[in-house]
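input
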Amino acid sequence: MRYNSYKKMLKDINTPIAVVLGCYVTGLAVIRNLGRKKIPVIGLDPNPLQIGLFSKYCIGVECPHPRWEKKEFINFLLELGEELDKKGVLIPSEDMYSLEILKNRKKLEKYYHFTMADEDASLKLINKQKFYETLEKYEIDYPKTYYLKDFTEIDEIINNIKYPCYIKPSYSCYFKEDFQVKMFIVKNYKELLFFYKKAKVKNHDVIIQERIPGASKNNYCLNAYFNKDFEPMGICTYKRIREWPFSRGCSCLIEKAYNSQLIEMTNSLIHNIGYYGIIDAEFKKDPRDNKLKLIEINARPWMQISLSAKHGIDHCYMAYSDSIGKEISFETDDAKYTKWIFLYDDLKASIMDAINNELTFKQWIKSLKGKKEYAFYSKDDMLPFLIIISKSIFKFINPFNLKKQER
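output
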């Protein structure tokens, strides 16, 4: 939908509109969470076929790309803001949106409320190098990490590096766009040089980080909304069951699992840096010393955010309410929805685990038990699910058809 075709609809909306930036799986969850609370929602994405744009809970709109068309993207938001009767609420679902709106916060605040802290505090979470430097400052355990100013410094640390290890970018959102992975897994010195040069050709600042051994089940996450007094609200903790891709991917199956240590570590850090907003913290237990190591904290909604909403803890609604000065309230319901699943990725992860003799059929069936929240499927909003199914089928059959035609 283009700008001129929907701007007239905005004149009839008197409630502050939530503007969700990025409408893939995370954005779709945010749209549904707010829409079910009767909040008017506009979903913005540069891909006109992005699934969240087709949710019944939003006005789906194609927008300029926040990385490749930065000026046009901000101008688009300013023009949209001029059409609103009341200030809207910006909710980025991906870091590249967060980075651009934070840089232009002063201009945008005329038309929008923000659901996150200022650029300085936010970058301590978004920028990976600043993040690990902050953890070092506050003596919080994290994987061993090396910072390089340029290629010549590799020789100074090469004897300390153990393989496999990771090459991680400062900004994973841009890195993933360029390479379709969040980081590079490095198995030897030759690969270290190759992948380091590959990243630098695209002008990515990177760090080298050890890989903590152990399976996905050693990964934990904490989700919460921190208010403007840096107080946590609606804390939820989960355990990862499977991930895709292995060792550098996202959780495709998680389950509820309380862990007080996650809460203590996260609360201390967020208070120290003065951050408010939605957060998604990831930890991994290191079997070498049995300590929890903080891997990252996303300063935005996360893929599985619809699961906490099913518990009655709607972090999106908390952020929206707090930004407009409305009192935050919620009632938990721990009896329902113990797991979240991205079925397509979980099937791939399960097959790989089975091939590697790490998952039996009986174990797989057991892992799927319990009431589940799905990444795309929802009885009350079926169109995004049907679209993702059709895309998946096309990806499966199209390569076969192409090969058949070449013969």
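quick obs: The mean pLDDT is 90.
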